[in-house]
Amino acid sequence: MTLSCGHTRHRLIKNFTSLGPYLREGQCHDFYFFFDCLAMCVDVKADPEKREFWGWWLDLEAQGQSMTYSYRYGLFDEAGNWSEIKFKDKAITEKVHTTRQSFHKRLEVLVQQLAPPYSLTERP
């Protein structure tokens, strides 16, 4: 499967994997890509298999030479599901947003380094 600009799905996945442990390849299909980040553990005293995390996730779709994206924030539960939740604690908000901003800067650089480069556009 190839986009009109010549990039294959496999090539994009390889590039996205270089960003770190954010890409969930099993949840990607065609030219839709899913990323997430477990930024902060809710309760570090809980058993590892029962831990929940505050974080973010990203839906990214490539079309032609552009990529559209949307970020969401919330809770990753022990069953492995995301729930969109507004953070009430300022420290949690700052930690999650800092990790997202750091990731997004690296994503912007990566898509600009592709030949030909992509543009990134946030979905409304």
TrEMBL record:
Leader peptide range in chain numbering: none
Residue ranges that the Swiss-Prot or TrEMBL entry lists as coiled coil: none
Subcellular location(s) per record: Cytoplasm
Pfam family membership, one: Crl
Keywords: Activator, Cytoplasm, Transcription, Transcription regulation
Statement: the UniProt record of this protein carries the keyword Cytoplasm: yes
GO BP: positive regulation of DNA-templated transcription
A GO CC term attached to the entry: cytoplasm
Protein origin, superkingdom: Bacteria
Cross-referenced InterPro entries: Tscrpt_reg_Crl (IPR009986), Tscrpt_reg_Crl_sf (IPR038208)
Protein family: Belongs to the Crl family.
Function: Binds to the sigma-S subunit of RNA polymerase, activating expression of sigma-S-regulated genes. Stimulates RNA polymerase holoenzyme formation and may bind to several other sigma factors, such as sigma-70 and sigma-32.
Protein name as it appears in the record: Sigma factor-binding protein Crl
Organismal lineage: Bacteria, Pseudomonadati, Pseudomonadota, Gammaproteobacteria, Enterobacterales
Gene name as annotated: crl
